[in-house]
Amino acid sequence: MQRILLASLTCAGAILLPARAADPVYDVVIYGGTSAGVAAAVQAQQMGRSVVLIEPTQRLGGLTSGGLGQTDIGNKAAIGGLARRFYQDVRKHYQAPSAWKWQSATEYRDGGQTRTADGEDAMWTFEPGVALRIYQAWVKQSQVEVAYGERLDRESGVSLTRSIPWRILAIRMESGRTFRGRMFLDATYEGDLMAAAKVSYVVGREANTQYDETLNGVQTRQARYHQFAKSVDPYVIPGRPESGLLPFLDPTGPGEEGTGDRRVQAYCFRMCLTDQPENRIPFTKPAGYNPLWYELLLRNFEAGENGMPWINSAMPNHKTDTNNRTGFSTDFIGQNYAYPEGSHVERERIVAQHRLYQQGLMWTLANNPRVPDKIRNEVARWGLCRDEFTAGHGWQDQLYVREARRMVADTVMTQHHCQGREVADDPIGLAAYGMDSHNVQRYVDTEGHARNEGDVEVGGFQPYPISYRAMTPKARECTNLLVPVCLSASHIAFGSIRMEPVFMVLGQSAATAAVQAIEQDVPVQRIDYPRLRQRLEADGQVLAWKKPAAAN
Predict the structure, then answer these.
(1) Would you report the helix, strand and coil content of the chain in percent, each value rounded to 5?
(2) What are the φ and ψ backbone dihedral angles of 97, each rounded to 5 degrees?
(3) To which H or E segment does residue 136 belong?
(4) Would you state the pLDDT for residue 118?
(5) What is the crossing angle of helices 128-141 and 35-46, to 10°?
(6) Can you tell me the mean pLDDT for 362-380?
(7) Is residue 222 in a domain?
(8) What's the structural domain count of the chain?
């Protein structure tokens, strides 16, 4: 079942954290240097406010600089403000001849939704290192203070006022460093600040009945894509259930169709690969390799799967953004359920397991003779990049956390907003991607075969507005916190909203709202929305969908 954590009068040590008089008080404190966090910090600074951006790792940009160079857009015309400026900066970078080390600009061909049309002022595909340099330039030019390597003390690191409605006074890191502020933004993929501040949230999938949806909860019928071939045996010894299930099959699945659970859609690393010999690191067999982890992969090929088990999208300089495809691929299905609420140590273990799984997967695909020749030979010519993620020998630290906690506010974005049956009257940006969930679990069907469950891919609707109220906690819970990433949305609606360009849009809008709450001296729930909208539009945000005469 889903879990909603409600605010409580008993906040244990969270209320009593002392703040030293010598600590500076920032106008805006942002926890999480994701794409949303960077955009928020730049916006707050440009509005003349003091801001600090706290990043738990040593790298800005989250997934945008972490390998996700094949931008999930939906519709380019829905992207404005700093988000569009990012893609304009990408184009400027690649217009310089010096940007093309491993191939010429004329040789590179992007594709699909991210193809850059003639005359566009933006470019939609990029190398991870390029995204990082753009973000680093942004914070330097805007003189944003960045605190790297600072992780929130999630147990007792949030200081709240003693009475409802609560305000955050300060947040303390595991290092002991404390940041005091007037307004706070949680820009993490996990919603750690939101949760530590005792704001209501949910983990997992709601039942369809909760919001009168059709695409939420357990979805065995929708899971037609990224599915196993028929008749893939799930047992260690084929045909013998008493031998036990192969790894990572859920013996309790799948559950009743449309019912809720605490499972979350699969994570992976968006690998940056290359076939450039001088820049290529060949795939190697990792320490701890377990062949049973990949037995279902091999049986799937033997059952008739002949498709490439990846989407290997071309990035500049003979590089790629590599994503999940087919029934057994880079998604480590079912192995992330503990991640959203896990401790830092538990999350590190889960990240390491995902990396081991994906390292072993790539070695298996490139070397195992049971892999069809055309697939094995194609995979073997690729490898990791020597000039990307150098500290990890080509492997990034940023896991693709597609979904973790989601806030539960007075307004919850649902399937009805995506498909236009409900329309937000206080937009702070547009979402434009289809409702998209990767597989959530792997189970044994009634015929005794391995199947995946949870994949949903439903589009066919125009860009739609995201409500400001979906970014603000309930007024009785916290009055100076905004949540632009783990915002209030059902599982399936979040699957449409959760794209990096949208997070940049929401980060900028959240910072604008935070500054206006300071200027008006009101809770974030009571700002003057018409005034907010006026400023957002002045800053180039797209808040209403008007189909361009010649949309790209």
Answers:
(1) 30, 20, 55
(2) -55, -30
(3) helix 128-141
(4) 80
(5) 20
(6) 98
(7) no
(8) 1
Q: CATH number, domain at 92?
A: 3.50.50.60
Full residue range of the structural domain in which residue 20 is found: 3-204+465-538
pLDDT tens digits, residue range 10-69? Answer: 343 344 445 455 789 999 999 999 999 999 999 999 999 999 999 999 999 999 999 999
Q: pLDDT at residue 392 above 70? A: yes
Q: What is the dihedral of CA 181, 183, 188, 190, to 10 degrees?
A: 100
Provide the token pair at 244: 């036990």
28 in any annotated domain: yes
Place of tokens 């603000």: 472
Question: In whole angstroms, what is the distance from residue 500 CA to residue 71 CA?
Answer: 7
Tell me the HSE value of 314 on the side-chain side, using a 13 A CA sphere.
15
Listed range (132-141, 217-226, 281-290) with the worst mean pLDDT:
217-226
Nearest Cα to 495, choosing from 422, 424, 440? 440
Rg (alpha carbons) of the chain, rounded to whole number: 23
180/172 Cα distance (integer angstroms): 9
Least confident among 255-259, 289-293, 543-547 = 543-547
Residue with tokens 């695409």: 215
Give the separation between CA 261 and CA 255, rounded to whole angstroms: 9
Distance separating alpha carbons of residues 67 and 272, to the nearest angstrom: 6
With tokens 């700093």, the residue in question is 82
DSSP-assigned beta bridge partners for residue 190: none
Residue 112, in any domain of the structure? yes
> Can you tell me the mean pLDDT for 339-344?
98
Burial class (CB in 10 A: 0-12, 13-18, 19+), 175: exposed
Q: How far apart are the first and last CA of the chain?
A: 42
- pLDDT reported for residue 165: 87
Per-residue DSSP letter, 20: -
Backbone dihedral angles phi then psi of residue 3, each to the nearest 5 degrees: -125, 130
Residues in CB range of 374: below 8 A, 6 or more apart: none
Domain-embedded: residue 116: yes
pLDDT band at residue 313, thresholds of 50, 70 and 90?
very high
CB 484 within 8 A of CB 510: yes
Asked if 433 and 73 touch (Cβ cutoff 8 Å), the reply is: yes
User: Of the given ranges (162-166, 380-384, 418-422), which has the lowest mean pLDDT?
Assistant: 162-166
Three-state DSSP state, 427: strand
User: Is 0.85 topped by the overall pTM?
Assistant: yes
Give the whole-angstrom CA distance, residue 9 versus residue 23: 27
What is the reported pLDDT for 5?
44
Q: How confident is the model at residue 9 (pLDDT cuts 50, 70, 90)?
A: very low
